[in-house]
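Pilot study result, target chain (71 residues):
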Amino acid sequence: TPAISTGLRAISESCSITTTGANINISWNASSGATSYTLRDGTTVIYTGSSTLYNQTNLKISSSHSYTVKD
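Predicted structure:
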């Protein structure tokens, strides 16, 4: 299976992005006092919850993604 992307990078030191096949694993450091996080891929909310780890699966090969997380 070809890599999903090349050139992925985390903008913040508190964020980590890794890929496996057609999956992207995103993790971030907990924010003091936060009880919930919202993760977006572009403008689409893909996760809301208390975990600081999200695995986005079954992505198209060579697709483009831009992630933001807010508490």
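One observation from the pilot: Residues 1-8 have pLDDT under 50 and may be disordered. A full batch analysis is planned for the follow-on phase.
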